[in-house]
Amino acid sequence: MPVQFRNFLWVLVLGVGCTWMMPAFAQQALSEIKTTSTDNDGVEFNNKLFHAPEMIMVGELPLNNKARQMYPSPVMFDVDNDSRVELVVGDIFGSLNVYENQNESATGEPVWSKHVPLESTDGQPIKVSNW
Amino acid sequence: MSSQLVDMNADGHKDILVGSFSGVPQLIHGNKDGYGQPEAILDSTGETVLIQAFWNKYESKWDDTDRAGSEGHCTSVAAVDWDHDGDLDLLLGDYYGGRLFVRMNEGTASEARFAKVNQPVMSGGEPGVIKDGLAAPRVVDWDGDGLFDILCGGSKGGVFLYRNKGKQDSPEFATSVTLVEPLKGKPNAFIKQVPSIDGRPTLPGSSYHIDPVDYDGDGDLDLIVGARSQWLNENVKVLTQEEKEKVASLKEQQASLMEDYQAMMAAAKTDEQQQELLESKEQAELATKLSDIMGELRKLQPNPNSSGDFVWLLRRK
Fold first, then answer.
1. Are A89 and A67 in contact (CB under 8 A)?
2. Torsion over CA: B280, A1, A28, B130 (sign)
3. Residue B26's beta-bridge partner residues?
4. Alpha carbon B201 to chain centroid distance?
5. Which of B307, B311, B298, B21 is nearest to B192 (CA)?
6. CA-to-CA distance for B300 and B283, rounded, in angstroms?
C-alpha cells in the first residue's frame, strides 16, 4: 500500500495524531476531524463583486445531497452535444456526474435534474479521480 | 478543477480534460458516439505530463521527478493556446505549493507533442503563487479585453485573478488580485468552520473548485464553486461528569496506543520494513484497539461538527 494512501486511511479510520508522517492531504483530513470549535470562528462573507453565496439545489435539496461527491469540481458545458448546457461535477474518488438543465426556456436560471453518471460509449461509468 | 470540454486533437469532437489526484492530467477522448475512458496525457517522449510527484500505477508506488521543483500531487489542468500558435498548451496547477506551470505543446493542434518540462507562470515578474495552495485554475477572459486571464480557487478558500496584460502570443500576468478573500477563522484550520442555518452551512469553506459562467443570463460572469464546508451542529450533547471522566480515560488510552504506533513506525525505516509492519499481527491488533476506542469515544461524544461538500453560486453584483 503506498505511504500516502496508507496515512490517509489511518486518518480516516482513527481520526487521531501521527501528523509527523502525514502528507499535507492527510493533515487536511485530520484538521477537519480535530477542529471541533464551538463557535463560527468569526467567519463572514463580505465582498464587493459578488453577492453572498447561494447553495445550488436540486429541488429542495442541496445539489450534492444524493451524490455525496467529495471535493466536488463543478463545470457547466454541453457534455452530451444536445445544444444545452449541463452541470458536470467531478470528485476526488473518481465519479463524474451530469445534471441536466430542466429549464427549457431561453431565459432564467438553470433548474437541475437528478444526477446520472457520465458513461463511456461502452456503457460503463467514466471513472477519473478528478482534481 | 478541472473538467474542461475542449477539442484537444482538432478532430471535431469535444474531449474532456481532467486534473487528477494522482498528479497526471487525464484526457477522455470524445468521438461521434460519446466518450472513451480516461487516458494519461503524455509528453513528446512518452512520459506522463505532471508536476513532480505522481502515482506510478505500473509499479504501485509514489515516484518523484525533478522536473519542476514542486510536489504536484493533486494537479489541476486547463487547456489554452498560450502562445497563439493554433494548438492547445496545458496550464497546470499545484495544490500544495499554489504554483502554476505551463506545459507547451510543441506539436500541432491535431498532434500534440508536449514539452518535457514545465515553465513557471510568471506574475508581476515572479513565479505566481497562491498562498496556502491552489485548488484549481480556470482560463477565461475575465475583463473582456480579448486576452485570456487566469482565475484560481484557493485550497483554503478564496478566488484570485491573474490578469493578462500581455499580447496574444505572449501572455504576461500582473500580480494576482483577490476577488474573494479566503474566509477568516482559525489560522491553522485547513477547513474553516462556517455559520449554518437549519443544519446547513451558509458559506463554502475550503478547496474552491470554481467555474466562471454567466449562470443567470444577465451578461456578466458569475462563479459556481464546489467546496467543502464544516459547521457546528445544533443541540450538541452535554456530557455528564461520569461521561467526561470516561472520555478523559479513553483519550489517555488512545494517546498511549498512538505513542506505541509511532514508535513502531519509527523503527521501520525502509519501505519493505513498513510494509512488513503493516501486514503484521501487532499492527492489526493495535489498529483494532484504536478503532474500538474511537468507536466508544464517538458514542460518548458525538462530533459537535458536521462537514460536507456543496456546490455554490457566487452571483456577480
1. yes
2. positive
3. B18, B40
4. 21
5. B307
6. 26
Residue B176's nearest CA partner among B232, B220, B244, B124 is: B124
Of A14, A43, A92, nearest to B193 by CB-CB distance is A43
Q: What is the pLDDT of residue A39?
A: 45
- Say if the Cβ atoms of A3 and B202 lie within 8 Å: no
Taking contacts as CB-CB distances below 8 angstroms, the residues of chain A near B254 are: 16
Question: CB contact, 8 Å: A89 with chain B?
Answer: yes
* Among B140, B150, B202, B195, residue whose Cα is nearest residue B173: B150
CA of B196, closest CA in chain A: separation in Å? 9
Cα gap B96→B116, rounded to integer Å: 22
Cβ distance A47 to B181 less than 8 Å, yes or no, reads yes
Contact A64, B311 (CB under 8 A): yes
B222, B214 contact by CB (below 8 A): yes
Residue of A nearest to B224 (CA): A74
- Give the chain A residue whose CA is nearest to the CA of B60: A2
For residue B257, how many other CB atoms are within 10 A of its CB?
Answer: 17
ipTM above 0.85, yes or no: no
CA B277 to chain A, closest CA, distance in angstroms equals 12
Q: Give φ, ψ of B160 to 5 degrees.
A: -130, 145
What's the predicted TM-score (pTM) here? 0.77
Please tell me which of B55-59, B95-99, B162-166 the model is most confident about, judged by mean pLDDT.
Answer: B162-166
| CA B219 distance to own-chain centroid | 29
Residue of chain A whose Cα is closest to the Cα of B92: A131
CB contact under 8 A, B265 and A124: no
> Quick one: closest CA in A to B317, which residue?
A50
Q: Which of A61-65, B109-113, B115-119 has the lowest mean pLDDT?
A: B115-119
Q: Residue A130 is nearest to which of B3, B193, B204, comparing CB atoms? A: B3
A128 and B38 in contact by Cβ < 8 A? yes
Contact A35, B189 (CB under 8 A): yes
Sign (positive or negative) of CA dihedral A47, A48, A50, A52: positive
User: Which among A3, A64, A73 has the least Cβ separation from residue B3?
Assistant: A73
Measured CA distances, A87 to B5, B175, B218, B307 (Å): 12, 31, 18, 23
